[in-house]
Specification:
With 527 residues, this protein is α+β, with helices and mostly antiparallel strands. The chain has 4 domains: 82 residues, Uridine Diphospho-n-acetylenolpyruvylglucosamine Reductase, domain 2, CATH 3.30.43.10; 117 residues, 2-Layer Sandwich (Uridine Diphospho-n-acetylenolpyruvylglucosamine Reductase, domain 3), CATH 3.30.465.10; 124 residues, FAD-linked oxidases, C-terminal domain (Vanillyl-alcohol Oxidase, Chain A, domain 3, 3-Layer(aba) Sandwich); 104 residues, Vanillyl-alcohol Oxidase, Chain A, domain 3, CATH 3.40.462.10. The protein is built from 18 helices and 20 strands. The strands form 5 sheets. Strands 7, 8, 9, 10, 11 and 12 form a 6-stranded antiparallel beta sheet that branches. Strand 7 and strand 8 form a beta hairpin. Helix 15 runs antiparallel to helix 16. The N terminus is likely disordered. It binds flavin-adenine dinucleotide. The site of flavin-adenine dinucleotide has 36 residues, from strand 5, helix 7 and strand 12. Its cofactor is FAD. Keywords: FAD, Flavoprotein, Oxidoreductase. This is cytokinin dehydrogenase. It catalyses: N(6)-dimethylallyladenine + A + H2O = 3-methyl-2-butenal + adenine + AH2.
Amino acid sequence: GHGPWQSLNRSALGRDGQIFSWNVKQVEALFVASSITSTMLAISVPPELTDNLHTDSGAIKLASIDYGRIIKEKPFAVLYPSSLDDIRTLINLSYSSSFPYTIAAKGQAHSTWGQAQANKGVVVQMSSLNSFRNGTGILISGDRSSGFYADVGGEQLWIDVLNATLARGLSPVSWTDYLYLTIGGTLSNAGISGQTYRKGPQITNVLELDVLTGKGEFVTCTSQKDTELFYAVLGGLGQFGIITRARIVLEPAKERVKWLRILYSDFSSFSTDQETLISTTGPSHKVMPDYLEGQLLMSQSPLDFYPQSQHQKITSLINQYGIVYLIEVATYYDNKNEDKRVKQMLKSLKGFVHGFVFEKDVTYLEFLNRVHDEEIVLRKKGLWDIPHPWLNIFIPRSRITDFDNGALRNILLKRNFTSSTVLVYPLLRSKWDERMSAVIPDEEDVFYVVGFLDASADDWETFDNRNKDILQFCVNGGIKFKQYLGHHATKEEWINHFGSKWNTFQQSKARFDPKMILSPGQRIFNN
Ligand code: FAD
C-alpha cells in the first residue's frame, strides 16, 4: 500500500459516479463552449467547485503567461483546486458535456511555448493542492535492502523533494538543471541534466504514478499494472492524464561535490573527451563523473564561475578561438579521497587546454541548486521575467561535428550571437525506455543535447529567427534531429516528431482522453 496516498485516493474514489447526482445548485458559471461559434453555455457546476473557479482578470492574466513570455492564451477560468476531487469534477463536467472545454494542468508554467496554457479553456493551478496535502506532499519510504523511494504530489517542486529527502540522508538520482519545476511538469517531458547519461532521464526513475485521465478516472499505474497509461504519461506532454502522484527512486545522498570546468579550444577534442567520460567501457569508466554537461564560452559569456584572477586569461583564449568549449563535470563524495579520483579522471582526457581546468568544492545542495543562484542575480537585474525564445534539440552523434560547423560556427558565431547560453552534452540511448512517450533520435547509441537558452527583453524574434535557421540547416543537411520541449506548428510536424511512436501515442490519446481535453497548449490534437 502507499499509506496516506491510498486513503486520499479512496476518499476521492468513494464519490465515483455521484458527481452528477449531487444536489447540484445551478450556478451561473459560464464557459465558452466552442471556440468556433463562441457560443456561451451555462452549465451546472457543484458549488464547492465554483468557489475555487476564478474568472477575475488577475487570475486569467497569471494563467496566460509562462516563462517563455511569447505565447499568451487566455483561459476562460482558473481552477484553484482544494482537493483532487475538484480536478476530477472539472474533467468530468467537460467530458460529459456536449461542448467539452479544454483543461491544462499548470505546474510552474516554466514552459516556453504556452504548453501549460488553455485558450478559452480552464487552467488548473496545481500549486494550490499544497494546502490540501497538508504537509503530506512528499512521503519517504523504503529501506536499505529493497531501496528507498518518495511518493510525491504532481504539483510539488523538485527543490522541495531535494530538501525533504536530504533531511533523511537521501536524494533522487536524476535531475534537471533548475529545481523550481514540478514533478508533473518534468515527467511530462523527460527531465534531463548531467546525471542523465548515467541514471537515465527522470521518467526512467519513476516506480508508480497516480493519474487522473481525460475521462476523469483515477488510475494507479506501474510498469506491471495499467502499463499503457504508465508509459504513455511518461514524456506524454500532459496528453493522457494529470499526474497527481509519482513514486520517485531515491538513493543515499553524498555530502559534497567537486565541480569542474575544463576548457577546450576545438570542438573535436571537446566532444571526444565528453564521449570518453560517458563511455562505460573506456579508460575512465571507473572514474565516471556523477554529472556531465558542456557549454560554449563566447565573448559575452558570464565568467562568474572562474576566479577573478583568471578572467583575463580566459578572455584572451575566447578572443583567439571565437568559441571555447567547456566540459562541466561533477563528482559527489563524502570523504577526502576525491582529489585522487578527479586527478585520475583528468588523466583520461586528451585535448583540454593546459592550465584551463577550474574546480569548485561545494555542498551537494549548492551544486544541484546552482541555477537558482543565477535566477536571483537575473531577477535583480530584471532579466528573469522576459521572453525566452528557447530551442532544445537532440542531434545524433554522427552529425554533431557538422552541427558545430554549420550551426555553432556558421550561424551563431558568424552572426555575433555571443551572449547566448548554449549547452552541448552527450546522452546514451540505452538509458531511455523505448516504451515511454518521450522522443529521442532513432538508431544511434549516442546523441547530443544542444540547448539554445536565450533571453531577450526587446527582440526575441531575432533569436527565434536564428533558431529557425538552425533547424532549417539541420533539415537541409539531412540531420535527423528531434526537438525537446519543442513546439510544432502543424499536426504533420507532430506526426513527424513522434515518428514510429505516433500510432501508439494517438491510440493512447483515444483511450485516455478521447475528447481531447487535456494540455491543449501543446497543440498536438488542438491545433
Ligand atoms: P509546466 O510548464 O507548468 O507544464 C508543462 C506541461 O506539462 C504542460 O503541458 C502542462 O499542461 C503539463 N503538466 C503540468 N503539470 C502536470 C501534471 N501534474 N500532470 C500532467 N501534466 C502536467 N527541463 C529539463 O528537462 N532539463 C533542464 O535542465 C531544464 N532546465 C530548465 C531551466 C529553467 C530555468 C526553466 C525555466 C526550465 C527548464 N527545463 C528543464 C524545462 C522544464 O522541464 C519544463 O519547463 C517543464 O515543463 C517543467 O516546468 P513546470 O513544472 O513549470 O511545468
